[in-house]
Design brief:
By secondary structure, the protein is an alpha+beta fold. The chain is built from nine helices and eleven strands. It has two domains: 64 residues, no CATH class; 216 residues, Cupin (Jelly Rolls). The structure holds 2-oxoglutaric acid.
């Protein structure tokens, strides 16, 4: 390398002496040949990249069929390659029932793991969350929380709001957006144990869950204004989940996965304050729309 640099400096000195512009060296045959050689290297690089990505793709398909994850894939691609489901879970389901006073045994037998969605209307009766949780409660709780960096690491879904994180969202009360200029709907996971403990003083494990089932340690909260909600999507989580409507009302629209369109129905249900929906969001495509009236606030978790 040193030798090459010395030769290059010598060449430049000769150019200067001969009054040749060093840029004209580009037209030298030797260099043109070198450029051609470089072009071949680029082609080689493209070919190698193509081969490598084909191999990676093949390995991904192979391993995803064997339900092991070799590498993570973007969400949309993962959904595109979602293994088809058996349609038994939605066949014959023509509406979503609202039930109350259901025992955990009956719930386990009929709904907990069958994939049949249901709404339980009497499970939040003693929860103070219904009268305590609002925008200002969350703003204070999170702003006074100790480990903000931990909270920032929890998942945050901005939907179309444009907010970059929960703290930014909580700087913007819904009243600022009366004109509808911002799509004020977002969700977050409550992965910080201290705030989770604080929030849980106001709600509990729904009484109807099977006795052996555990509530996931992380709860999800969704909050937003009327007319907005989550777009139609399917989740890639491990378990079914419950979601309680703590304030306002929200419509859920459920679609069977495409491979079940022929056998299963589109479903709709309006969640009123106090209702809890139980849904396998891995199987049912789902969309939500907040109905007019109060801000919608929901809380939920997966259960096993
Ligand atoms: O409550 C919502 O608006 C969306 C909920 C959702 O998409 C989910 O729980 O997977």
């Amino acid at each position: 390398m040193e030798e090459a640099s010395l030769q290059f400096i010598e060449l430049l000195t000769k150019c200067k002496a001969a009054k040749i512009n060093p840029l004209d060296l580009k037209s030298l045959k030797a260099l043109v040949r070198e450029q051609k050689f470089r072009l071949n290297k680029i082609e080689l690089f493209v070919a190698l990249t193509f081969i490598l990505s084909s191999v990676t793709w093949f390995l991904f398909l192979f391993y995803s069929n064997n339900s092991q994850c070799l590498i993570g894939l973007p969400d949309n691609l993962r959904k595109g390659f979602r293994p088809p489901v058996q349609c038994k879970f939605c066949q014959g389901v023509s509406n979503i029932q609202k039930v109350k006073r259901i025992s955990s045994d009956e719930f386990e037998q009929r709904f907990a793991y069958s994939g049949i969605p249901v709404v339980v209307t009497d499970a939040t009766a003693n929860w103070t969350a219904l009268t305590t949780f609002d925008f200002w409660y969350f703003k204070d709780t999170y702003n006074l929380g100790k480990r903000k960096h931990k909270i920032l690491n929890c998942q945050f879904f901005p939907y179309k709001s444009g907010f970059r994180n929960l703290f930014e969202a909580l700087e913007n009360p819904p009243e600022y957006f009366d004109s509808g200029e911002k799509a004020w709907y977002f969700g977050w996971s409550n992965c910080n144990p201290e705030t989770a403990e604080q929030l849980r003083q106001h709600y509990g494990r729904p009484y109807f869950l099977p006795e052996t089932s555990e509530n996931n340690a992380v709860d999800w909260i969704f909050m937003g204004r009327s007319g907005l909600g989550a777009h139609m999507h399917v989740d890639n989580v491990r378990l079914p989940s419950w979601q309680a409507q703590l304030s306002g009302s929200k419509k859920w629209i459920l679609m069977p996965p495409p491979e079940c369109y022929f056998w299963c129905n589109r479903l709709e249900i309006v969640m009123d304050e106090g209702d809890i929906i139980i849904l396998d969001t891995n199987k049912w495509y789902h969309q939500t729309v907040v109905l007019s009236g109060k801000i919608s606030i929901t809380i939920g978790a997966e259960y096993d």
